[in-house]
Amino acid sequence: MLKVTDVSIDIAGKRIVDNVSFTARTGTVTGLIGPNGAGKSTLLSALAGDMPLSSGAVQLEDTDPQITPVKDLARIRSVMLQDVSVAFSFLVRDVVEMGRRPWARTEQAALDDEIIDAALEATGTTHLMDRDIMVLSGGERARVAMARVLAQRTPIVFFDEPTAAMDIHYQEKSLGLIRELALHGATVVVVLHDLNAAAAYCDSIVCLDQGTVAAAGDVDSVFTSDILSKVYGWPIEVTKTTAGVHIAPRRAEPGALHHSLITSASWANSEATAQQ
C-alpha cells in the first residue's frame, strides 16, 4: 500500500531526509520515531504529497502523490498534522464535515451525515459538535482533527503526533482508534515521541536519526537498549516480557544549571527576603 524508495528531501539547501526506504503494509501501523529534528514530520509531509522530493519515489497504492491531483489524492490518503490550530471560527461539526469534501458529488456523499456522526462519536466529540472550535482546548481540537481524518475514510492514513495534547484517557482511546483502522484494512503511518505508545500500538518501526534510517523492522528488533540509547543520545533501558516492551530512560541528575543561573536566583530570593 505504501512504498518509499530512496527518498531524500532538501529544504533551503540543507538535506533533511536522506535516502530513506521502507514499506508500510496494508492492515498495519508503522511508527516513525526518532529525536527532535530527525526528519519525521518532513518525511510524513512528503509521503502525503504535500512536500516535494529531491530524489527517490513514493508510491501510495498505485499512485505517485507528487503528481496526483489534490482532489484525487484526498480520496487515497488523509493527514492529521501535529499543529491542530484553526485560523478561523468554525463549528466543530463543520470541521469534521471538511473530511467529506473529497467525496462531494460521488455516491459516497449519501453517507456524509452518518459518517460525520460516527466520527464524532468515536472520538468523544459529539457533545462539542455545536461549539466554536476556537474556544476548545488543545486536546479537544486534536480529537476533532482526528474525527475529520476518520470522516475522510481513506485507505492510507498519516498521523503526526496525534496524541501530544491529549490526556491519558484520550491518548489511549485515540491510539486504539488508530490501531482499529489498521485492523479494518487501512495502512497507517504515525509519528510518535512516546516510545512506550509506539511499542504498544505499532506493528513495525522506522527509526530516523539525522534524516537517515537508523533502524527499521518490527518492535522487538528496533526497540533495544543499544539502538535507542545511541539514537537518542541518552541511556535507555528496554525491558521485554510476555506483557510487552517497556522503555525507561535513565532519570537525569541535578547539576545541569549553570552556576550563574543558580546565583542569580539565590540573589533574587535574598533580596525579596530582605525587603520583607
What features would you describe in this structure?
Residues 2-235 form the ABC transporter domain. It comes from Corynebacterium stationis. The chain has 276 residues and is an alpha/beta fold. The protein has one domain (2-76, 154-275): P-loop containing nucleotide triphosphate hydrolases (Rossmann fold, 3-Layer(aba) Sandwich). The chain has helices at residues 40-47, 70-73, 92-97, 112-122, 138-152, 168-183, 195-201, 219-222, 225-232, 259-275, and strands spanning 2-11, 14-24, 29-33, 55-60, 77-80, 156-160, 187-191, 204-209, 212-218, 236-241, 244-249. The strands form three sheets. The chain has a six-stranded mixed β-sheet with strand order 5-6-7-3-8-9, sandwiched between helices. The chain has a three-stranded antiparallel β-sheet with strand order 2-1-4, with helices on one face. It has a two-stranded antiparallel sheet with strand order 10-11. The longest helix is centred in the C-terminal third of the chain and has 17 residues, at 259-275. The N and C termini lie far apart (69 Å).
